[in-house]
Amino acid sequence: MWGKLKYQLTLHLIIFIWGFTAILGKWIEADAFVLVWYRVIIAFFSLLIFLIILRRKLVIQSSSNAWKTLGVGVLVALHWLTFYVSIKESTASLAIICLATTTIHVSWLEPLIMKRKFLWSELVLGVIIIGGILLITGNTTGEQNMIGIAFGLLSAILAASFSVFNARLIQDVTASKITLYEMFSASVVMSLFLLLSPSFTLNNLLISSNDIYLLLFLGIICTSVAFLITVEITKFLGAFTVTLSINMEPIYTLGLAALFLGEHQELSTWFYIGASIIVGAVFGNAILKYQQRKKLKKAIS
Questions:
Q1: Which of 66, 7, 267 is nearest to 185 (CA)?
Q2: Where is average pLDDT lowest: 207-221, 229-243, 251-265?
Q3: Dihedral, 280, 282, 288, 289 alpha carbons, nearest 10
């Protein structure tokens, strides 16, 4: 009992740390492009060092899987970029609530990519989430907030896309190799974005000492270390328990945003009603999947 509790507490500490990623997006002064470039570069090199220390194999043997993984890394880069644009344009609270719709996007993407049966229950949950978003957006003022919501919803679609593709890749490639390759291709993509930008100069990469510390925390602790620990915990708790627990991230972020950014003063009651509906639907989807798995196991046995 203590063993599982220990892993549960560690997992929630990791999720709590992930809750800081949106807050860091507000604290870091660098723009979204530079922020994401530093994050993927730091994450790639720190993860590479960790894996070398742990003596893990680094090369994906199948060239087909290697190229697919590098391609998914492009989606990861675009996801983080749109996520941090959303934060910069609006608030951390709005961005994280938009990101909470990822689970529902997975529900319609999986049947297309994984060739599984479409479930009407997932469509109903999707409609409920759309209702929550309408409550938030319908009572949100300001052009910047609307831009932030648009980028936040796009970020969720991108997150759902790379999650589904990773679900296919994980059948043939270890999680550590997938993440390493994706961080590499994300680094290349973000570097190309910056180099091809007409307004880019090396001065754009000059950041304050405060930003350096925050980016190191974001790239190493929130990305590399958190990933490695989560992979290990999944072996003991199972994928479903970990996925269900990760749904707590929006709640942690909302609390942190209220505490450190004072965003609760900018958000209306309708925001919290809409946010509660979205988070409730996300948890409902996870519980529904659990019940379906239990029925399937009974039918097989």
A1: 66
A2: 229-243
A3: -160
pLDDT tens column, 133-150: 777 666 656 667 788 889
Tell me phi and psi for residue 290, to 5 degrees.
-65, -45
CA distance 256 to 264: 10
Q: Give the C-alpha separation, 17 to 222, whole Å.
A: 6
Range of the domain at 177: 2-300
Between CA 231 and CA 113, with CA 99 as vertex, the angle to 5 degrees is 70
Residues in the chain: 301
The pLDDT of residue 2 is 57
Q: Note whether 73 and 189 are within 8 A (CB).
A: yes
Tokens of 101: 């719709």
> Do residues 156 and 98 lie in contact, with contact meaning Cβ atoms separated by under 8 Å?
yes
Residue 288 CB coordination number (10 Å): 15
Neighbours of 78 (CB within 10 A): 22
Q: 19, 203 in Cβ contact below 8 A?
A: no
* Domain count across the chain: 1
**In 102-216, alpha helices (H):** 102-113, 120-138, 143-169, 175-196, 209-216
Q: What is the DSSP letter of 117?
A: P
Quick one: tokens of 108?
């319609």
25, 120, 200, 205, 214 from 209: Cα distances, Å: 16, 51, 21, 12, 9
In which element (H, E) is residue 40 found? Answer: helix 32-53
Given a contact cutoff of 8 angstroms between Cβ atoms, the answer to whether 275 and 132 are in contact is yes
Q: Are 101 and 207 in contact (CB under 8 A)?
A: no
Question: What does the alpha-carbon distance between residue 228 and residue 90 come to, in Å, rounded to a whole number?
Answer: 31
Confidence of residue 127 (pLDDT cuts 50, 70, 90): confident
